[in-house]
Each structure stands twice: as structure tokens, then as C-alpha cells.
Amino acid sequence: MTQRNRPLGPMTKAIHAGEGPDPATGASAPPLHMSSTFVTDQVAGFSAHDLENGPEGFLYARWDNPTVAMLEKKIAAMQGTEACLCTASGMAAATAIFLTFLSAGDHVVVSDVSYAGVAELARETLPRLGIEVSTINMSDLEAVAAAIRPNTRLIHTETPVNPIGRLTDLAAVSKLAKEAGALHSCDATFASPLGMDTVGLGVDLTMHSITKYIGGHGDAVGGAVAGRADLIAKMRAEASIHHGGILSPFNAWLIARGASTLPLRMRAHQVGAQAVAEWLESHPSVTRVIYPGLASHPQAALAAQQMSNTSGMISFQVGDAAAGQRVAQQMIDRLQVIHYAVSLGHHRSLIFWMETAGLMETSFRLEGAQLDAYRAYAGDGIFRLSVGLEDAEDLIADLDVALS
Ligand SMILES: *Cc1c(COP(=O)(O)O)cnc(C)c1O
User: Fold this and answer.
1) Which residues carry this modification: N6-(pyridoxal phosphate)lysine (predicted)?
2) Second label for 275, Cα 20 to 30 Å away, from 25, 96, 291, 334?
3) Domain coordinates of the chain in residue numbers?
């Protein structure tokens, strides 16, 4: 007997969720609907507040578009949530979370190390709007607990954190958020939906820059937030319909094409990164490697418990800032396969030097114990290496020439 009602596996979901043969043409591949408006047979209101009781089907692309909706269903299925909202970029996804769930007088606890744009948004923009912000080392659970105030509405984590690969115990932070009556949002871009069961770990809103692993090919910018249907509906009304930061249908179509192979790619990213990380760890010019799949990761036990795929992101050091700058120049001059460029999660490998002093002046501004905790992972600076899908031997040969 075949079992029709068993849950679909992750590969099947990535390929089929949100899609189906086109009823009009029978096309097997999903169509690209660029239409900004949709002919309707219903008399509808034109307010975001009409969303819940709005018309069946589509009205206007800032509300909803069939190609974007297809990608939203696919990401929700992969992340295991009821719903998903796609946005113009990962930054638009972070902004959507903050500006939907925070108002003047509210307090938010944000990871003291996070994607630079998120760090600057939290430190510069939110206080300007009357929102109180605490930036906390999320690997220090006592510090997270101590930061919570009666008006704390949101705790925003990121794990593994960009760019140093430090981890946050999501189940523990979810518990603290729940006790405080706050939402827990997590930027899971580094891990991808395949890396962590954020829903099982109690996260309310899982955010991704889909420019990275979900799209996976470095040719489209986008963002996503996955979570409960009521939370996502609130975000759609605020962030899409009012703020207007919607994903283009063309980008949604490209990113959905990439997302179909995400489980396969994540497995290959992990295998490649493990091989490169182990090789880097044995290289005489490399003084420190941080990768969640290495036994030497300071939080290896948490990685094993929380991550089902350790992804392709490696951080490594080559000594002090002067050594880092010298090796960065060698990489720019000598790398033939790996691109010296920002961004991550693509099929092409990417590497970039990130000096601690510069990041502290601009994005993070950490001092005292928080700066010491950063330096425990990054020293004077790190190379952030996004291991792509090339043959690991070719990446190793490329790095060997650049490091010597
Ligand atoms: C890239 C990135 C972002 C921002 O995403 P964009 O698509 O570039 O706007 C947010 N968080 C993390 C962890 C990222 O790596």
C-alpha cells in the first residue's frame, strides 16, 4: 500500500511546494507573472485593513502576486511555518520585522553582532523613532535575561552570526522571550532553512536574506520572513502594503528556481566547507578557523545539537591586522577560482577580509567585555569565506597559492 498522507520530504517540498502545473496551459514549470494589477469580479476595498476580508485571488502586486506567492509558499514549506512574506531584500525583511512589531516606547534586544546593516539599523534608526535598543551578546544567556525590561517586545537573534560564526542557543532565548511576552525573531541566513528547525526551537519569525543560500546563484536580491499566519498577515499589511518594500516577481521566479535545489546544495556546501575548514586548520599561515562543523568551534556541542547542516560559512584568521591586510591583497592578486567579493551562499565561492577595528568604528561599536567576546572569535580581523559548490580540491589549491 502506498502511503499518500505521509509528510513530504525536504527535497520534494523544495521542488513542489507552491508550484503545480499551470491550469491554463499545462506548463510544468511555474509561470512568471509580471502583472502589477489583476482583473477582478469583486467590489473590494483599497486599504491594507481590508486584507483579511479582502477579495479572493489577486488585486494589486503590492498586496500579492502569484509568482511571489509561489515562492512564499515554498519558503514556508521548507521552514515549516504557516506563512511567509517575501521582501525586496534581506534588509527590507529586517526592517519589516522591526517596524511592524515595535513602536515608540517599546524595547528591543538585538544581537550585538549581526549583519552590519541590521546592526546599524538597530543602533541608528530605531532610537530615532523612540524605540529603546539593547545590543547584547546572545551567546551569554545571563546577559540576555538581564537585558529584558517590562516593555521588551522583541528579541532579535542571528545564528550563526555574520561575520564571526558565533552561535546562539535558540531554544533558550525563545524561552526567555516567551516568559517576557516578547516575540523572538531570528536571522537564519547563514544556516538556511535546512540548517535549523527554528520552529521547533521556538522562534516566532525566521528571517532570511534570500539573496544568499535560498536563491543561491548570486543573481537576485530578496528577503523573507517565515512564521505564524497572523504575524505574517500583520507584516504584509505594514511592510508590503504601506512601506512598499515588495519583492519583484522576476526576482521571485529566479529565487524559486534556485530554492528548488536548496537541500541538495546545502549538503554540498557542508561537505565542501568541512573539507576546506579542516585543510585551513592544518595550514601553517592560518592561526584560527571558526566553523560549526569543526570540533574546535567554541560552541561545537551547541552546533551539534541545534544545526542539522553546518552550512558553507567559514571564518579564519592569519595573525594580526597587518598580516590580514597583506594576505587580503595576495588574495585579490592571486585567486583564480574564488571571487574576492562580499555576499555569500552562492554556487561560486566568495571571500572577504573584515578587520575588527573598522567594523567596531562603523557597525558594531563594542567595548569592554562585548569587544573581548568578539575578539575571542575574530581577533584583529577575519576572512569570511563562503564555500561554494566548486570541487573542494580546486578551492584548496586556490587558497594555498593566496596564503603562501
Ligand atoms: C546579507 C545579509 C542580510 C541582508 O540581506 P540583503 O539581501 O543584502 O539585504 C541580512 N542578514 C544576513 C545574515 C546577511 O548575510
Assistant:
1) 212
2) 334
3) 9-259, 262-403
Same fold, 9-259 and 262-403: no
**CATH, range 262-403:** 3.90.1150.10
Q: Is the Cβ–Cβ distance between 345 and 312 less than 8 Å?
A: yes
Residue 398 pLDDT class (50, 70, 90 cuts): very high
Strand partners, 206: 186, 226
Question: What atom of ligand 1 comes closest to residue 343's alpha carbon?
Answer: 1
Long-range Cβ contact pairs of 126-131 (< 8 A, separation 24 or more) = 126/98, 126/102, 129/104, 130/103, 130/104, 130/105, 131/98, 131/102, 131/103, 131/104, 131/105, 131/106, 131/107
pLDDT at 217 over 60: yes
Per-residue pLDDT at 6: 86
CA distance 57 to 325: 55
Q: Residue 49: which pLDDT band, with cuts at 50, 70 and 90?
A: confident
Query: How far apart are the C-alpha atoms of 187 and 198, rounded to whole Å?
Result: 10
Strand pairing category for 183-187 and 205-209? parallel
Ligand 1 pocket test, candidate residues 209, 343, 346, most atoms within 8 A of CB: 209
Ligand 1 geometric centre to CA of 214 (Å)? 12
Q: What is the pTM of this model?
A: 0.97
CB of 166 shorter than 6 A to ligand 1: no
pLDDT per residue as tens digits for the range 269-325: 999 999 999 999 999 999 999 999 999 999 999 999 999 999 999 999 999 999 999
Supply the pLDDT for residue 81: 98
Any ligand 1 atom below 6 A from CB of 209: yes
Q: Is 374 exposed, middle or buried (0-12, 13-18, 19+ CB in 10 A)?
A: buried
Q: Which of 97, 211, 248, 255 to mutate to test the pocket of ligand 1 (most atoms within 8 A of CB)?
A: 211
Residue 52's pLDDT band, with cuts at 50, 70 and 90, is: low
Cell of 272: 565542501
Contact 324, 383 (CB under 8 A): yes
Mean pLDDT of the residues in the chain: 96
Ligand 1 near 352 CB (within 6 A): no
CATH of 9-259, one of 3.40.50.300, 3.90.220.20, 3.30.70.260, 3.40.640.10: 3.40.640.10
Confidence (pLDDT) at 54: 58
